[in-house]
Amino acid sequence: MQGTPEVAVLRLGHRPGRDERMTTHVGLTARALGADRVVLAGEGASRQDTVEDITERFGGPFAVGTTDSPHALFGGWDGDVVHLTMYGLPVQNVQDDIRTAFETGTPLLVVVGAGKVPFEVYEAADHNVAVTNQPHSEVASLAVFLDRLYEGQELDREWEDTEQVVVPQATGKRVETDG
Q1: 32 vs 158: CA distance, rounded Å
Q2: What CA–CA distance (Å, rounded) separates 165 from 114?
Q3: In this structure, is residue 59 part of a structural domain?
Q4: 87: β partners
Q5: CATH value at residue 36
Q6: What tens digit of pLDDT does each residue of 132-179 get?
Q7: Rg of the chain's alpha carbons, rounded to an integer?
Q8: Positive or negative, the Cα torsion across 52, 56, 57, 58?
Q9: Strands 175-177 and 164-166
Q10: How far apart are CA 123 and CA 118, in angstroms?
Q11: What is the DSSP letter of 131?
Q12: Nearest CA to 23 among 6, 37, 35, 40?
């Protein structure tokens, strides 16, 4: 979101045949809820075109990148690394510390895993954060974390360079072409 340090989301891991939609949804959730970019690692890079297409049609700014060296990305990150995992500390117990650092200029790299995450990710993270300590969707964890980070302000974001705009209504679906 404008005027704040960068929030990047790293999708670490991708299980072909199982995570096609999940990896796409990590990217779309990052975009919709205030992150500046998503980086798709390894085989997850195959979802780049889909996330870029949505960004092109529904607006940005939002960047999509890929990497074959995700460990180099979070190892060299100039800011805090937040790893979302059900084994971490409860989000409600650490959100204030993370938000305070962010609001004073610390960029965030939010790591969202797929499958078994290597232990070195837990060690490299500044914060291992759980949105409940129960198994559930990594997309849900990302959505809850970003909403807590921005305290709901991301829901009022204004989009630039849109081709299509969803018109909110009580019933039905309405999408207009912008321009």
Answers
A1: 11
A2: 31
A3: yes
A4: none
A5: 3.40.1280.10
A6: 999 899 999 999 999 999 999 999 999 999 999 999 999 999 999 976
A7: 16
A8: positive
A9: antiparallel
A10: 9
A11: S
A12: 40
Asked whether 36 and 6 are in contact (CB, 8 A), the reply is yes
In order of 29, 59, 83, 107, 111, the CA distances from 125 in angstroms are 21, 31, 6, 13, 9
48 part of a folded domain:
yes
Residue 1 lies in a domain: no
Q: Please list, in sequence order, all residues whose beta carbon lies within 8 angstroms of the beta carbon of residue 31, skipping any fewer than 6 positions away.
A: 38, 51, 54, 55, 60, 62
- Number of residues that make up the chain: 179
Q: Which residue is it, tokens 């975009």?
A: 31
**Residues whose CB is less than 8 angstroms from the CB of residue 16 and which lie 6 or more positions away in sequence, other chains included:** 43
The alpha helices in 63-137, defined as continuous H runs, are 70-75, 91-103, 119-124
pLDDT tens, residue by residue, 91-131: 999 999 999 999 999 999 999 998 889 999 999 999 999 99
Residue 115, φ and ψ in degrees, nearest 5: 70, -155
* Separation CA 15–CA 1 (nearest Å): 30
Q: Is 111:10 a contact under the CB 8 Å cutoff?
A: yes
Residue numbers of the domain that contains 41: 7-177
- pTM for the complete prediction? 0.94
